[in-house]
Inverse folding.
């Protein structure tokens, strides 16, 4: 269905890197759902409360079972990220990205090196965060692509807004796509996120045409 997509094999070596809040998995030829957010989109107290809730669940589970399987750990991370997403969709912070001039800036940055550096399957620019389904090209790493997007857009957006200071959160979320069914689910999630958040006639989104897509 998707010409460029390569599903990870069980024998593939997945590199794991621990970020300040989340682990990151990377794989050569991997495809990822990534989300990065404005610096003020998730206040420190909200982030602290969500992490505390996650740690409480972890502690209770360990008390009962003694340990967690890899699947259980992953489910716990996804539960945390679902709650973060729900908080973001309420429109916390200044929501700079809902301004048309900023929305255009972010959308154009996402598309600028398409083909040369990566393949895009979907993206949506929400008022306070950005989703993208991206497959880095040979010789390019996901972290490099995210840094390029964020550093350029932060500089240009601050010029437009006449402000200085941090624009994006330093941390980002990424999910390694496991198979075509997972890819379709994530594409549709990214495409429908504006509708889920109650945004009417939202312009700043795109998804790749594919068989069965509405």
């Amino acid at each position: 269905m998707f010409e460029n997509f390569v599903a990870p094999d069980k024998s593939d070596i997945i590199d794991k890197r621990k970020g300040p809040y989340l682990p990151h998995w990377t794989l050569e030829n991997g495809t990822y759902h990534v989300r990065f957010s404005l610096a003020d989109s998730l206040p420190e107290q909200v982030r602290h409360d969500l992490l505390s809730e996650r740690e409480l669940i972890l502690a209770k589970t360990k008390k009962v079972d003694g340990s967690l399987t890899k699947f259980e750990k992953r489910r716990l991370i996804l539960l945390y990220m679902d709650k973060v997403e729900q908080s973001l969709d309420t429109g916390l912070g200044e929501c700079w990205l809902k301004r048309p001039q900023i929305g255009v800036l972010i959308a154009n940055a996402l598309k600028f090196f398409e083909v040369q550096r990566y393949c895009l399957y979907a993206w949506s620019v929400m008022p306070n965060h950005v989703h993208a389904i991206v497959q880095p090209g040979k010789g390019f790493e996901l972290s490099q692509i995210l840094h390029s997007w964020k550093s350029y857009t932060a500089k240009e957006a601050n010029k437009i807004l006449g402000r200085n200071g941090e624009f994006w959160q330093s941390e980002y979320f990424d999910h390694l796509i496991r198979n075509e069914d997972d890819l379709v689910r994530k594409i549709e999630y990214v495409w429908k996120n504006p509708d889920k958040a109650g945004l009417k006639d939202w312009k700043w989104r795109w998804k790749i045409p594919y068989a069965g897509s509405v």
Summary: The radius of gyration is 18 Å. The helical segments are 44-65, 70-88, 100-112, 142-161, 180-196. The chain has two domains: 24-40+95-209, 42-90. The first strand starts at residue 15 and ends at 18.
